[in-house]
Design a protein that fits this description.
Zinc-ADH_QOR/CCCR; RNA binding; cytoplasm; six-stranded parallel β-sheet; alpha/beta; oxidoreductase; zinc; Rossmann fold
Length: 337
């Protein structure tokens, strides 16, 4: 099968950072789906894994943590899907990724592709939708169905992939969303997605949020990095919660978190698959929920750029675009030539 893989961890401008290879077609295990991949998305995790490490990969490592496609075959214990089903998923960081014609993925972390979306539109969603959903509803314990309507949520880094679907999920839950964005393009984007207020994360946040008439906010999601930690701590309400998706080596003073009895939550959407948690199937359920909401017209794809075909040249360009940190929404590659 065709695949794009790395043999050595290299900067993206190196011509061998990602390579077109021919690799063996895998065989499904007991709960695996063998998926014929039709479209993939590129996320910051792709670029981080590609750039990290000094050793050579043997066998070559296939990246890719977003995909949509068609079930080709199933393992003997599979009960949720059958061959021919159209699916979408983010996969498992400990297994070969989606940048290949065929991929194995555990059925418990796969959802049915939204019927109203193309494969490219669907591939933009899984990793970011799972991340935002788990961050809000599993970590911060916001009620998905509106019991917390009217509460405020500050999303720092709102125009990226996670923020783009996160704004929509938060609005569906009835929250008042304050989104950060710094360019005219991204400001328009987050407003289009439903943000109630927009503040500039390149300027002091505390003053901007308080100018909206809010001394504190109920919830804060940090979807870029932890450079705004001190401001987040200042803005979170007593007994409120902050969720972040990025590890950090920056100082993260906790004294004011203690005096506010506020909580810090880490979101890592691969945790359930990596550790085979008892509730691993929740990702199947939440992806199906997202698909239902999209098909009902309540949510929309966050695709902003699609390129074809899926090959090393186009994936290197996509990695380069993600590393530029100027994207809004999601970049997708579709179809193998």
């Amino acid at each position: 099968m065709k695949a794009v893989a790395l043999i050595q961890h290299l900067p993206i401008d190196h011509p061998e950072a990602l390579l077109d290879l021919d690799m063996p077609k895998p065989e499904p295990g007991a709960r695996d789906l063998l998926v014929s991949v039709r479209a993939v998305s590129v996320n910051p995790v792709d670029t981080k894994v590609r750039a990290a490490g000094q050793t050579r990969e043997d066998p070559p490592r296939v990246l890719g943590f977003d995909a949509s496609g068609v079930v080709e075959a199933v393992g003997e214990e599979v009960s949720l899907f059958r061959p021919g089903d159209e699916v979408y998923y983010a996969g498992d960081i400990t297994r070969p990724g989606s940048n290949a014609e065929f991929q194995l993925v555990d059925e418990r972390i796969v959802g049915r592709k939204p019927a109203s979306l193309s494969f490219a539109q669907a591939a933009a969603l899984p990793l970011t939708a799972i991340t935002a959903y788990e961050a809000f509803f599993d970590r911060l314990k916001i009620d998905r169905d509106g019991a917390d309507a009217g509460q405020s949520l500050l999303i720092i880094g709102a125009s990226g992939g996670v923020g783009s679907i996160g704004i929509q999920l938060a609005k569906q839950a009835g929250l008042k969303v304050i989104a950060t964005a710094s360019r005219a393009l991204t400001i328009d984007w987050v407003r289009e997605l439903g943000a109630d207020h927009v503040v500039n994360h390149r300027e002091p946040l505390v003053e901007q949020v308080r100018a909206l008439g809010l001394r504190f906010v109920d919830h804060i999601a940090v979807f870029n990095d932890m450079h705004h930690w001190d401001e987040a701590v200042e803005l979170i309400r007593p007994q409120g919660g902050i969720v972040t998706i990025d590890e950090t080596h920056l100082p993260t003073a906790m004294d004011k978190m203690k005096t506010k009895a506020a909580s810090l939550h880490w979101e890592f959407m691969f945790a359930r698959a990596m550790f085979q948690t008892p509730d691993m199937i929740e990702q199947h359920h939440l992806l199906n929920h997202i698909a239902e909401q999209i098909d009902a017209g309540h949510l929309r794809t966050t695709l902003t750029d699609v390129r074809s075909p899926i090959n090393a040249h186009n994936l290197r360009a996509a990695h380069r675009a993600v590393e530029s940190e100027t994207l809004h929404g999601k970049i997708v590659l579709s179809d193998f030539a």
